[in-house]
Each structure stands twice: as C-alpha cells, then as structure tokens.
Amino acid sequence: MPHILRETSRGISPVSLEDAAFQERKLFIDQEITAAYASEICRALTYLSSEDPEASITLFINSPGGSVVSGLQIVDTMEAISCPVDTVCMGMAASMASIIFMAGRKGSRLIMPHARVFVHNPLTLGGGSGSALSVKKTADDLLETRETLADLMVRYTGQDKDEALRVMDEETTFDADEAVKWGIADSIVDRM
Prior knowledge:
Blueprint: E1 3-8, E2 11-16, H1 17-23, E3 26-29, H2 35-51, E4 57-63, H3 68-80, E5 85-94, H4 96-102, E6 109-111, E7 116-119, H5 132-157, H6 161-169, E8 172-175, H7 176-182, E9 187-188
Parallel strand pairs: 3-4, 4-5, 5-6, 5-7, 6-9
Antiparallel strand pairs: 1-2, 7-8
C-alpha cells in the first residue's frame, strides 16, 4: 500500500493511504464479505461513530458479495450507529454487497457511471446432500433469507415486494442509469 507524507505534531510522517482515508471517515468494502472482514468493517464503523456521532461516513463498495449473515452484520451496524453512512458503488456491488450499498443514507447512495449492481436469490454452499430433512431445512432457511433480503430491498428502494422478488429471481444486473431509475442508487457520480 502506498504511503503519503503528513505533517503531525511529531514532524512529517508517512501514512498509508488506507489510514489517510480512515482519518477522512472513508472505508472501502473491496473484497468478498466474510465473517472476519465484516467484523473489521463493523469495528471501523462503530469507532468512527464514537469519534463523531454526527459526521457522515462514506463506504466505497466494489465487492462480489459473500456471506449473507456477515453482510447483514454490516447493514445492522450501519443502521445502529448514530452517524449517517453514505455509500458509493464503484465497479460492482454484487449479491450481499448490493444490499449494503442500498442501505446507505437515502439521498447519498452514489454510483459511478460504469458501475454495476447485481441482485440475485441467496445461494447455498455445498452440494445440498444429506437426509431429506436436512435438505428441507436448508431450503427453508434459503427461502427465509430470500424474504429478508426482499424486505430490505423494498425498504431501501421503494419498490413493491413482488418486484423485488422478480429481480432477485431473474438474477438482474443494473447499470448506473437503471440503478437510479429502480431506486437502488440516488444519483450517478459526476465528480468527487
């Protein structure tokens, strides 16, 4: 990671770009969302909120998604902290990352001109083998998760639930214009 030079009380010191961005209340979700990664993001969100409960935090998102449980941990944290969280989709917000993007502060969900948002039904990992009861339980869990994600999409986009379920079922990719029209994003970034 490149470093920049910053003047501090101790003189000029090298600071990583990641640390400089953090000091400016900017966080990046730029990898698969795992339990460990979600915990890092949530710790950063809660710390920044405790430092200044009113100043906004910006989440820059370019992620293929990942664990629904871990992604919901981030969404819950975004909603629980006192400061607003703005989101910027750069590159791609896919799967669970799309829900995190949508959860940003209404009016401050920005998308880059060539970014994409990909929405689909939750997936199961593994082959789905096992007893009939374990396969049924897995299917029931997936359907419950599908409902949860659709309910969040309804809340964040203003679409009705049937429409949210339809785009999930069709594994829909939205370009920047379509994301704004559908209510996923509020506007396309023209300058930062």
